[in-house]
Amino acid sequence: MTTVRSILIADDHPIFRRGVRNIIEESPYYVVTAEAGDGQSAIRQLELNRFDAAVLDLAMPDRSGLQVLQWMRDNTPGTACVVLTMYADEGYLKRAFELGANGYLLKDDAHDELIRCLDVVCDGGRYVSPNVGHSRGAVLSPPDGQIDEKLSALTPAQRAVLRLVSEFKTSKEIGRELDISYRTVQNHRANICRALGLDGPNALVEFAVKEKEHL
Amino acid sequence: MTTVRSILIADDHPIFRRGVRNIIEESPYYVVTAEAGDGQSAIRQLELNRFDAAVLDLAMPDRSGLQVLQWMRDNTPGTACVVLTMYADEGYLKRAFELGANGYLLKDDAHDELIRCLDVVCDGGRYVSPNVGHSRGAVLSPPDGQIDEKLSALTPAQRAVLRLVSEFKTSKEIGRELDISYRTVQNHRANICRALGLDGPNALVEFAVKEKEHL
DNA sequence: CACAGTATGAGTACTTGTACTCATATGATC
DNA sequence: GATCATATGAGTACAAGTACTCATACTGTG
In Å, what is the separation between the CA of A185 and the C1' of C10? Predict the structure, then answer.
């Protein structure tokens, strides 16, 4: 290794960023040159400076890690991407790699593996955390791996309704809060279900709760 | 301040512990002498050594932070407790203080406030993060701050139903899975609602999802 | 202007959850 | 044996979500 490599950390939890920074800077070959607390500012950092690698959380406000990944694939192909997430789900893994990720690391494993992962991806390789794909929790299975696309197809009104659905509010409560008829709310719910291919009594609530972070 | 104070960190995410440790050890007056990844080992650490303060996450495997708090109140009254959590919910805050916590800090705020909080609680004071109680999400409000007690009052059959409810299953699906009539499932749901003081269309699902970890 | 998309509101039918009541069977305890 | 808690099943009534249909109004675009 000839030079020191610059790293961007994007995660919405400051303490978590600090933990990651601390791990990375234990190695003399890496230096964290920027941090971002949301997807938007991550992209801004990537526009301003060049990085050898970016460590991305998937669940971030403003723009999800997946959206940042997509942006990086199109704009900063020279920067390696490591996804650092809590979700040991193969669906997320697949989507991340489809969007150009070079590494996929579980937060619980990062303590021991982050440096090794960075070594691999900075040399052009790929690294996937062990334990991925064997999580006990039934994780949302993206039917065709295009949740974000479908989500972004929702109208603003639909998104507003969906946010309140994710807080377990009823159509009446949502209607009161948005100052529209509860029938309109039910229309929005139905349209969201159709747009997202959801079916069944609790499907919408389930989706809303699980994707709350990406709304 | 005369001596260096010893701190225990309990959180299930290693990177997060590292971030917290890093923050704490920026101050020359504190040193992290132990870490724990779950409630059980936190209690073990507290049995083995004396600490001036403990920084506890609420959501941990094995035993929740609340259970650790309860244990500390009865066994290590000389050790100050700071709850470090993501939940800006007054219900949790109240329960934490009822169980003897001295501080309540949001993870997002900890970066700037942890040292000040430790200063306060180690001198016998109490510290509550700003922004607590104003979260946008309607968070579960424990009517009298005794969720654990009520939860343990549930019968095994009720708990089984509740677990499946937390997976967004319908009564019919639960009936099929447990091989009982869906009417029985609905009875269990109703009884759980009564036992827990829940009311409203989505109240049970909301409760089940939010307390999934403690089931 | 015509058209498409969106937001809004309502009707109808069906399913599901909630909140009660009641009944039966089983197993433990006194 | 009587009693109590639990589990099981069902009846009834109402509220809510789902899944359609239709209609009106506004806002852009071509």
Answer: 12
Q: Find, among A71, A70, A212, A215, the residue nearest to A156 by Cα.
A: A215
CB proximity A186–strand D (7 Å threshold): yes
Report the CATH number of the B5-128 domain.
3.40.50.2300
Q: Are A168 and B15 inside 8 Å of each other by CB?
A: no
pTM of the model: 0.52
In tens digits, what is the pLDDT along chain A, a chain of 215 residues?
568 899 999 998 888 899 999 999 888 899 999 999 888 888 888 888 899 999 988 777 656 677 788 788 878 878 888 888 876 656 667 677 777 788 888 887 777 788 888 887 887 777 777 666 443 333 333 333 455 556 667 788 888 888 888 888 888 888 888 888 889 899 888 888 888 878 888 888 888 887 776 66
**Residue ranges, CATH 3.40.50.2300, chain A:** 5-128
Q: Which residues touch strand C (CB under 7 A)?
A: A 155-158, 175, 178, 180-181, 183-184, 186-188, 201-202; B 170-172, 182, 186-187, 189-190, 193-194, 198-205
Please, which contacts does B153-159 make with residues 24 or more away whose CB atoms are closer than 8 Å?
B153/B195, B154/B192, B154/B195, B157/B188, B158/B188, B158/B191, B158/B192, B158/B195, B159/B215
CA torsion through residues B73, B76, B80, B83, sign: negative
CATH code linked to domain A147-214: 1.10.10.10
The gap between A185 CA and D22 C1' (Å) is: 17
